[in-house]
């Protein structure tokens, strides 16, 4: 009798455990949470967490416990791909928000693809992120072939540059962006007096010497704030006040800290992550973000939030189409690609056949005395496919 009672209690416990596991739904985030780019990666993670906090009651009504599982990719493709494989092995994870770096997104999304794990990027701009045609890869930001020409238009039109020096950080992101800028500048008749890639992080004296000799009217650097900030600090230290233009990799509050307030002028960047003052619905978001994390939100925090909201709404849509039961990864993947998502900070989101946002906006920011000031905004559409 005791043995039977014990067996029944064990079976009941196992049954409860199985039921509990079935009612847990997770999404994952992949972004740099340590290292030189952790400022932006933490913003993405926190934005995603805020969205999860807000969506949890809706999931609870359907009988699901909702969780975010953050992974640190250290801005490294190998680390990010290893994280993707761990995510694929956890059957409770139905979708992924990430990454920050295109060089990480490309192999990570390929590792997730066989499991039909949808990925919604708040940041990746390299053309090849979506040009590969993966069914699971989507992004809510503009591509390099939109952002690059916008940067070139600003250099040629607003800065009236006749000569430009183009640099990149030798990553998929930096090379892709700088390549698009260089191509567009040449088409506008701007002379490229120097073009090179560098992985240097601390000593830019040889590049600065070339810049002194060629005397460009503008410098374009495709890369991330932690590297470019050091470059600008040394450039200004050498007495060169030439405008420096970059992409959304400069969109971090750490940039003027690295450069130093005295040198944090005459810096411009295009960004896919809207400055919060450009987003009508951002006041409530900013207050909630500050309250939740004791940290001021930045553009990538807002876009991490929007990418997570697209992800979570896609899961809910798939669950409701599945008679309010936990959907499969394939069902979620299809719901995200085919859905139209409203109520986002950055406006309505829907994707084309390869996962590019059908309509996005680019912003040009001006760094003045260490502060980011909105210069202009520009609506863009992805190329037809």
UniProtKB/TrEMBL annotation:
This is Branched chain amino acid ABC transporter substrate-binding protein. The lineage of its organism: Bacteria, Thermotogati, Deinococcota, Deinococci, Deinococcales. Belongs to the leucine-binding protein family. It comes from Deinococcus aerophilus. Keywords: Signal. Coiled coil: none annotated. Residues 24-370 form the Leucine-binding protein domain. Residues 1-21 form the signal peptide. The keyword Signal applies. Pfam families: Peripla_BP_6.
């Amino acid at each position: 009798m005791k043995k039977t009672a014990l067996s029944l209690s064990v079976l009941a416990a196992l049954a409860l455990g199985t039921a509990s596991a079935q009612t847990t739904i997770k999404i994952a985030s992949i972004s740099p949470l340590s290292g030189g780019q952790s400022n932006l990666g933490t913003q993405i993670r926190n934005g995603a967490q805020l969205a999860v906090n807000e969506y949890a009651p809706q999931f609870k009504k359907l009988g699901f416990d909702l969780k975010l599982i953050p992974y640190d990719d250290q801005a490294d493709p190998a680390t990010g791909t290893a994280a993707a494989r761990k995510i694929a092995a956890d059957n409770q994870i139905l979708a992924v928000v990430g990454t920050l770096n295109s060089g990480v997104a490309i192999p990570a999304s390929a590792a997730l693809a066989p499991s039909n794990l949808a990925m919604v990027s708040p940041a990746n701009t390299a053309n090849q992120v979506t040009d590969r045609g993966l069914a699971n890869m989507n992004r809510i930001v503009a591509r390099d072939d939109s952002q690059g020409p916008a940067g070139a238009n600003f250099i040629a039109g607003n800065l009236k540059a006749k000569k430009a020096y183009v640099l990149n950080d030798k990553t998929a992101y930096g090379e892709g962006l700088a390549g698009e800028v260089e191509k567009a500048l040449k088409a506008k008749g701007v002379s490229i007096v120097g073009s090179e890639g560098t992985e240097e992080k601390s000593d830019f004296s040889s590049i600065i010497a070339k810049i002194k000799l060629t005397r460009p009217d503008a410098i374009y650097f495709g890369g991330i704030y932690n590297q470019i900030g050091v470059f600008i600090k040394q450039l200004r230290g050498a007495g060169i006040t030439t405008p420096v233009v970059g992409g959304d990799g400069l969109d971090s509050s750490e940039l003027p800290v690295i450069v130093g307030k005295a040198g944090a002028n005459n810096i411009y960047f295009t960004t896919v992550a809207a400055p919060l003052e450009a987003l009508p619905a951002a006041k409530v978001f900013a207050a909630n973000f500050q309250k939740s994390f004791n940290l001021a939100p930045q553009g990538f925090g807002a876009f991490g939030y929007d990418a997570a909201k697209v992800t979570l709404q896609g899961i809910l849509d798939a669950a409701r189409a599945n008679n309010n039961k936990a959907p499969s990864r394939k069902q979620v993947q299809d719901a995200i690609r085919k859905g139209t998502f409203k109520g986002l900070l950055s406006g309505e989101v829907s994707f084309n056949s390869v996962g590019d946002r059908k309509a996005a906006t680019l912003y040009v920011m001006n760094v003045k005395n260490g502060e980011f000031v909105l210069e202009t905004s520009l609506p863009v559409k992805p190329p037809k496919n």
